[in-house]
Amino acid sequence: MTLQTDLQALANPQKAIALAGYFQTGQGQYAEGDRFLGITMPEQRKLAKKYRDLGFAEISELLNSEWHEYRLTGLLILTYQFAKATPIQQQAIVDFYLANTHAINNWDLVDVTCYPILGMYLLQRDRQILYQLANSASLWEQRIAIVTTGKFIKHGQYQDTLAIAELLLQHPHHLIHKAVGWMLREVGKQNRPVLLEFLDQHASQMPREMLRYAIEHFDQPQRQAYLQRKP
After folding, report:
1. Is the dihedral of CA 27, 31, 34, 35 positive or negative?
2. Contacts for 158 with CB less than 8 Å, ≥ 6 apart
3. Most CB contacts within 10 A, which of 103, 104, 209, 214?
4. Lowest mean pLDDT: which of 25-34, 54-63, 102-111, 185-194?
5. How far, in Å, CA of 76 to CA of 54, rounded?
6. Comparing C-alpha atoms, which of 216, 192, 214 is closest to residue 203?
7. What is the C-alpha end-to-end distance of the chain, expressed in Å?
8. Cβ of 214: how many Cβ atoms within 10 Å?
9. pTM of the full structure
10. Are 185 and 153 contacting, i.e. CB atoms less than 8 angstroms apart?
11. Model confidence at 220: pLDDT above 70
């Protein structure tokens, strides 16, 4: 029995159709061509724990699969390995993760893996790699850059979130608008004055979707005041 066999046994064609639509896999959409088996996240997490001892070569096979769930389960294995790894092993996992960003090519693959791997690893380290990712040509690397900072926010560290948000402020894609707005909202939960200072400087230039995410927890009058700002 292999992980691939276990995944195929859980395939649900009906659910796969729904997931393909939800994750926008059609022609010209952000995940064009991605293929789904129709497996739930809890099922994938269960299998990732079962096969958590797979080596990089076997995980690489998963990451290079056409099947979304193969890639996600492979990435989940990395998160479980990282949580139990020694510092040297963590470095190897991070290097492997960064070498395979081509496979982290949908928003769920980014969001459930960058925070517990890169975020944890960089918490006490230099974060220049995030700025390289933010300045890359890859939508998904750019999303990794901003979402990873969620780990820092939880520890009262906001500088990188704000700096990367500025870099991505005029990004054309709605998935970056949502991610930046989400992280700014998280800053606001921890420290409202820091968010207000950022918004007072940038709200008039922010894409509306980004701004709406950032101010989601504001009261109605304050939300409207920011939404009505003009460049």
Report:
1. negative
2. 152, 187, 190, 191, 194
3. 214
4. 25-34
5. 11
6. 214
7. 60
8. 28
9. 0.94
10. no
11. yes
